[in-house]
Design brief:
Blueprint: E1 2-11, E2 14-16, E3 20-21, E4 25-29, H1 36-43, E5 70-77, H2 80-89, E6 98-104, E7 111-113, H3 130-142, H4 146-149, H5 155-158, H6 165-182, H7 187-198, H8 213-225, E8 229-232, E9 241-243, H9 244-251, E10 259-261, E11 263-265, H10 268-278, H11 282-288, H12 292-310, E12 319-326, E13 330-338, E14 344-349, H13 355-372, E15 380-384, H14 392-405, E16 410-415, E17 429-435, E18 440-444, H15 456-462, H16 464-470, H17 473-477, E19 482-485, H18 488-501, E20 512-515, H19 522-531, E21 536-540, H20 544-555, E22 563-565, E23 567-568, E24 571-572, H21 582-596, H22 607-611, H23 618-628, H24 639-651, H25 660-683, H26 686-696
Parallel strand pairs: 4-16, 4-17, 8-15, 15-16, 19-20, 19-21, 21-22
Antiparallel strand pairs: 1-2, 1-3, 1-5, 5-6, 6-7, 9-13, 10-11, 12-13, 13-14, 17-18, 23-24
Helix pairs in contact: 10-12, 10-13, 18-24, 21-24
């Protein structure tokens, strides 16, 4: 049974999630405290034996909670096997492909709804149920002579239905033996009893529970088909040695302070999972531990089984796990790296490995064991941050593990990592966002409408193809030249003024503009692009930091032609804003800050106000003015905000404030870039373009 839709109401920080579609492998993405964990835990309310705590009910909905509210409800799709099973048990009902489960704040049980199916709620004496079977037995007993009837103990039939076949068989056998003893002088009575006892319809596997068609169906689903949610949150770390004496005491319930020897396992549960994957029987180990050859053979087989089950989720070079028995009843976990050429290195205790390695190993052991246990088959798995603390390559290994699980288990998990998002289909990717004013969580099925900051890991994941394109040699060598700029403002101005000028002789269309994250990222980004075949140019301002970047580019074998400084009439400029005439730029500044700082005494700035400041470049002079007004709560001058104002006006074609001189000065920048590209194409040769990639290989 798979969950296809769900809704959560009045649970902790969630007033109403709305009805959410969900797939077989769904990721919940959201910032800290957004409600991801709450969503997962709310779904466990649909477990058959779960109890609702008053502390989990939403405080802000106390009035609504005075009435009965569905706290959690889910629409489930039945598998073909489940559909056939219901057909067999209830042949008179139409085919059921889905059911709805819900739990309310006033009913201790999970309730069922069957859309578009009419079910009889009155008592049905023809129903092959335990209740009718019991009545048949008691009716038969009422026909017996009184001297026999008063001797028969009917408590087995007066109580609820047995929970399983074993209890049914033992109860019936005990009653039948008692009946034979009591009625030994009445062969016809015994003959009548044997007909009832041996009737195939009265076998436990055929008996339903309930006196009406509706109750029988609900009880059958509850006992045989009810979905199960299993919540994982505590991923325990494994270290290196196990004190088996302490472990066995823990297994027997004889609690000790810890299971430890030099280093410790967090809990006996983790040790149990390790041995489960290795299929290692402690009794068998105890029998052979005094015989070294038998003990080594047993542990080698267990180690190989453990290794084979762990490596599918392990990224990078495979590992081999050895379980070694040591004096003092100590079991050691020894790890080796297995390289592609077959060599084995770095053999040593697990506790000598890095913390990230131990965490990864521990997670895979715990999770693989728990999910492979028979009782978790077909369960709906809920995972809270399953890849925290892992390197991206290992996160992708965990994502592969989850993908494999999605065949037998539906998997819903919460994550912050772009490397744990691998399906962008609505329903397989859900965004959880917190309304801070109301402290309520909201779930976005159409996740692209969520807040940009919430979407950050999703956007990084969506751009994985762009990252792959950087290191693809074929894409690089066949692409247009790229210009790497230091700031987002540089990128916005270059694109906006190219559109604004509409000059085919200097158009930037043949270029790709790449905005670096910050100045520190310009150099490595340029090297990455250059080494993978891209014709790469770097556009820099005239700051000291940019001059250092230029020197580093030269030392990394960039041609001086590939480094372009902002300049006008042979004079270097401090920033791209210096291509804009001061009057034009101040129009944007005054329009932006007149409204923003009206309460802080802002008055329009004149060119004289700015020119009078001793600093290089328009932006630096404006920052100096803002610094003088720090006590007036002007804050810091944000040149990117002015960039957005100017670019927005260009988009809206409201550019009367931009003079012809500003246009001409930007044309000079485009001519400079075009000239440098021509120079580089004239001097660069194919071997020059190839050597960096060959050196890397």
């Amino acid at each position: 049974m798979r969950l296809r839709k769900f809704r959560v109401r009045a649970y902790r920080c969630i007033h109403d999630s709305g009805e959410i579609n969900v797939g077989d492998l769904a990721a919940f993405v959201g910032r800290n405290e957004s409600g991801k964990t709450t969503i997962l835990q709310a779904l466990t309310l649909l477990n058959r034996d779960e109890q609702v705590s008053e502390l989990d009910l939403c405080d802000e909905m106390s009035e609504e909670l005075k009435e009965e509210i569905r706290l959690a409800e889910g629409e489930f799709e039945l598998s073909q096997h489940e559909i056939e099973l219901l057909k067999e048990k209830f042949p008179g009902l139409p085919e059921m492909k889905k059911i709805r489960l819900y739990r309310t704040n006033q009913n201790p049980k999970v309730l069922y709804e069957f859309d578009d199916i009419e079910l009889k709620e009155d008592e049905d004496k023809g129903l092959n149920s335990w209740e009718n079977f019991s009545k048949q037995i008691l009716g038969f007993l009422d026909t017996l002579p009184n001297h026999l009837r008063i001797q028969v103990d009917t408590k087995f039939f007066d109580g609820p239905a047995p929970k399983n076949q074993e209890l049914f068989d033992s109860g019936m056998a005990e009653f039948s033996n008692q009946f034979h003893v009591i009625a030994i002088q009445e062969p016809k009575v015994i003959e009548e009893w044997e007909k009832i006892y041996e009737n195939p319809e009265n076998q436990f596997s055929n008996l339903l529970t309930g006196e009406s068609e509706k109750s029988a169906l609900q009880n059958f689903i509850s006992s045989e088909l009810h979905p199960r949610f299993v919540y994982f949150s505590d991923y325990k770390k494994i270290y290196g040695n196990i004190n088996l004496n302490e472990y066995l005491r823990e297994e027997k319930g004889e609690r000790a302070d810890s299971i430890e020897f030099v280093e410790e396992f967090d809990k006996a549960e983790t040790v149990r999972n390790l041995f489960y994957l290795a299929e290692l029987d402690m009794k068998e180990l105890d029998e052979v531990k005094e015989s070294p050859s038998k003990c080594i053979k047993l542990l080698n087989a267990a180690s190989n089984r453990l290794t084979s089950k762990l490596n599918p989720a392990w990224k990078g070079d495979p590992i081999h796990v050895d379980l070694r028995y040591n004096p003092g009843n100590i079991m050691s976990v020894v790890i080796s790296d297995v390289h592609r050429d077959g060599t084995i290195t770095n053999t040593g205790l697990l506790n000598r490995r890095a913390e990230g390695f131990k965490w990864t190993f521990s997670f895979i052991v715990n999770f693989a064991a728990e999910t492979q246990r028979a009782e978790l088959k077909e369960a709906i798995l809920l995972l809270d941050e399953p890849a925290r603390n892992l390197h991206p390559t290992q996160q992708m290994g965990i994502s592969d593990l989850l993908s494999d699980l999605a065949g037998s288990n539906q998997v819903l998990y919460a994550t912050h990592s772009p490397f744990m998002i691998f399906d962008y289909t609505p329903g397989n990717l859900l965004v959880v966002e917190l309304d801070k004013r109301k402290h309520l969580s909201r779930i976005f099925y159409d996740y692209w409408n969520a807040d940009d900051k919430t979407l950050t890991p999703i956007l990084y994941g969506l751009c994985r193809g762009q990252v792959d394109s950087i290191v693809d040699r074929e894409i690089g060598t066949n692409s247009r030249p790229i210009i790497i700029v230091e700031t987002m403002s540089d990128s916005m101005y270059l694109n906006a003024f190219d559109k604004f000028l509409q000059d085919p002789n200097i158009s930037m269309n043949p270029l790709n503009i790449i905005a670096a994250y910050n100045k520190n990222s310009v150099l490595p980004l340029a090297i990455f692009y250059r080494n993978h075949g891209y014709r790469t140019f770097v556009l820099l301002d005239n700051s000291e930091e940019s001059k250092q970047i230029s020197a580093q580019l030269v030392s990394n074998e960039f041609s001086p032609v590939q480094t372009i400084f902002f300049e006008r009439e042979g004079k270097k400029l401090e920033s791209i804003e210096d291509y804009i005439v001061l009057d034009d730029y101040l129009h944007a500044v005054n329009q932006t800050y007149e409204i923003k700082l009206r309460q802080e005494g802002f008055s329009n700035l004149s060119p004289q106000d700015v020119s009078s400041k001793e600093s290089n470049g328009t932006v630096n002079k404006l920052r100096k003015i803002w610094a003088e007004h720090r006590e007036d709560d002007w804050g810091e001058f944000d040149n990117e905000e002015i960039t957005r104002y100017i670019c927005e006006k260009i988009t809206l074609e409201e550019t009367s404030f931009l003079s012809d001189k500003t246009k001409d000065q930007f044309r000079s920048l485009y001519r400079l870039i075009a000239e440098r590209i021509r120079q580089y194409q004239n001097v660069a040769t194919k071997p020059d373009l190839d050597k960096f990639q060959k050196a890397k290989a």
